[in-house]
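Much of what follows relies on a compact textual record of a protein's fold. Here is one such record, which you should read through line by line:
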Amino acid sequence: MILKTIKILSFSMLFHSVNLIAADEFKAEIGVLGGGTYYLGDANNLPFKNTQVTYGGIFRYKFNPRFALRTELISTSIVGEYKNETNIVIPFINKVVYSADVCGEFNFFDLEQNPNRRLSKTFSPYIFVGLGVMTDLYKGQFIPEPSLPFGVGIKVKLTKRLNFNAQWSNKILLLSDYMEGVSALNNPINLNGSNLFNNDLLSTLTVGISVDIWKKQCDCKNSNYNNSRSRK
C-alpha cells in the first residue's frame, strides 16, 4: 500500500512538472529594437563616423532553444561625403532607408528559464546570416536592392517571457557598385567603378526587447502516459 502510494505521488509530481515545462515554452517572439547605423564605402571610410539613429522590429520563430528563423525590419538614415574633381567636400544625406532581412539564427546555449533542463541558461551568444533587401538607396529606386546580412549578438532572458538582446549586424549591398553615379551610397565620380570586391557595407549596433508568444501545446502523449500510470 505504501509503495503504491509512493508511485502515485511520484507520477503525479512528474505529470505536473511536465505541464509546467510545457506552459513555459513558446514557439515565437516579437519585439522592438533601436540603436545606430553607420555606412562604409566610397563616401565614408571610417567606422562609426556619421552614425545615425536606427529603429525597427523583429520576429523570431523558434524551432528549438538553439535554432530560430527571424525577420527584422529597420529604418535608418545614411550620411556621408565625397570630394569632387576640385577636392571640394560635398556631403550627402539619404534621409530614410528601409531594410528587411530573413536570417537563420544559432544560439550557443539552450536559451530558456528552465531549472529542469541541465543545459539551459538564461543567456546565450548567437550568430546569424541570411538574405535581405533595402529600399530608397537612391532617388527613383523601384526594385529593392539585395543584401547579405550577418552578425553576432547576445540574448538574456529577463523573465520567463521577456527577453533582452544586443547585437552587431552588417549588411553587404550586393549590387551597389554597379550603380555608380546613381546610388546615394556611391559618389558621382565613380571611385569604385564596378569593383565586385568593394561593396558598400551598413553596420548596425542595436539593443532590443522581445516578448515570447504563441504558446506550445502540451505534450499529450506524455500527459496521457503519466495519467494512465498514476491511476494504477
In short: The longest strand covers residues 89-107. Helices lie at 2-23, 220-231. The mean pLDDT is 76.
